[in-house]
Amino acid sequence: MSADKTTILIVEDEPAIVELVSFTLRAAGWDTYSVSNTADAWAYISRRMPNLVLLDWMLPDQSGIRLLSKIRSDRQFTALPIIMLTAKSMEEDKIAGLDHGADDYVTKPFSPRELTARIKTVLRRKAPEHGQSILSAGPIVLDPVSCSVMLNDKRVDIGHAEYKLLKFFLAHPDRVFSRSQLLDKVWGDHVVIEERTVDVHVLRLRKVLKESEKLIKTVRSVGYMLSER
Ligand code: CA
What we know:
Elements: E1 7-11, H1 15-27, E2 31-35, H2 38-47, E3 52-56, H3 64-72, E4 82-86, H4 91-99, E5 104-107, H5 112-126, E6 135-137, E7 140-143, E8 148-151, E9 154-155, H6 160-171, E10 177-178, H7 179-187, H8 196-209, E11 216-219, E12 223-226
The structure holds calcium ion.
Calcium ion binds next to loops.
């Protein structure tokens, strides 16, 4: 199967910090992509939504806080998790960052362990399906770090879309999602596919889950949910 790793965009112009942060985040199991100015960051975000952005305050073309405002004023990016990296430790700057919609801030110099912990917390709070903890229901166990799915302790072959769908369901048990919500949440706003494509992938997912397919419930005229009940 193809990997479905959480991608973190690093917006930072100091090469040494980019190197340290990239190394740290990759070691924690995330994919990273780095850019050194706000224009490239905006181009990346518009093209391919990352799961989280680490945004430096002082950048060569304009301040990170300007980009933060731009991201937050665009409706499709309101839920995008953003952590500010800042050399400034002044209280008013932190407040300004949070006022502009940052989810958290990390003051330089920071320890790799602290940064990783902050990212995990924000991901868990904003998007549980992007957390790194093991997700499970009944005999199904999904490990986001190794991107593997076990069924009764045996690893199963699963397609990329089915993996993402399963991960989303496991992260939000007992909640019904419409086809269009699943398209939005699992495939992202940027992808234009028909709602019945969701049915095709649910069908494939059920096949992969064999007798545990009953955990994925069809809620008539509404959508789907995962429930052990
Ligand atoms: Ca900088």
